[in-house]
Every structure is written in C-alpha cells, then in structure tokens.
Amino acid sequence: MFSSMMIKHKIFGFGLLSLAFTAAIAMAGYWGQQQMSHAMTDVMTSSTAQKNLMQADMMHEAVQSDVLSAMLAGQKPEEERAEAGKQITENLREHAGVFQDSLAENKSLPLDELIKEKIAESESVLNAYIRAAEAVIALALQDQAAAQAQYPEFIKAFEAAELKMGELSELIEGAAKQAESSSGEAANTAQSSILLGLLVCALIL
Length: 205
Known about the structure:
This protein has 205 residues and is mainly α.
C-alpha cells in the first residue's frame, strides 16, 4: 500500500515537472516569436525608409533635369518656349511632389530618433532646393540672362540637398543593417532557448 502511494506520488510529480517544462518551452517559444516579430518590423521599416529615400534621390536628380530643360527651352522662339514651359512646369510639380511625399513618409515611420531628427533638420534645405528650382525655371522661360545669373545659387542648393540626402542615406542604411543583425540574433536566441529547454527536460525526465 505504501509502495503504491509512493509510485502515485512519483508519477504525479513527474507529471507536474513535465507540465512545468512544457510551459517553460512554450514561454521560450512565445518570447522568441515576439522578439522575431519586433525584429522583422524593424527590418520592414528600414526597408521602406530606404525605398523612400531612393525615390527621393531620383526626384532630386529629376528636378535638376527640369531646370536644365528650362534653360534650353528659354533659348527657343516664344511660342515653342511657352509650350515647352508648360510641360517643364508640370514635370517639376510632379517631381517635387514625389520628392517631398517620399521624405514626408519617412518622417512618419517609426524610425530611430536620431534619423527623425536628421530628417527634420534636412527639411528646410530640401525645401529650399525645390524653391531654387522653381525660381530658375520661372526666370529661364522669361529672361535667360537673369536665369544664368541665378543658376549658381541653384547649384549651391542642389549640392546642399545632395549632402543632406547622403547623410540620411548613411543613417538609414546603418539602421537597416542593425535591424537585420537583430533579427538574426533574435532567431538564434529563440532557437537556443527552446533547444536548451528540451535538453534539460530530456535529462531530468
């Protein structure tokens, strides 16, 4: 009778121990899943930021192309110049819109605070670049001499914007690499936790 009770207690104890280890492994799996989820969110955010910045960089170049087109159009006869001017002005509006929208989307992403601060600092320089392009295009279609005189100021604005874009690119690229590294670490940690739990369970039971 006493022996039978001891066996029942042991079975009950092993059952509780098995339940505890199962719960521990489940918690390790859940924790790992959460870590992976956070890491993947960071990877996706960084990827979106990089895509937006690449698009903004293309529009940065496109705006310069619009200015050069206006400089050439300004040398045409008045009727041709007016027709070309309409298209150039429309192109500038589209390119500037995409440029600003891409940067605004990055501003709304849950990025690192340092990157957000750099985006905020860059806004005035990037908006100044758009205004400089608009000014030169308007002059080029009316007064070539005035446009030529204003063009060096546009180049300064272009280079300032290019510098800011480069700084943002470095920060976002660094964040993307960090997010990828964190994702790999989270996966390895979760896998190790589960394997360790299984090993301890196997040794004790």
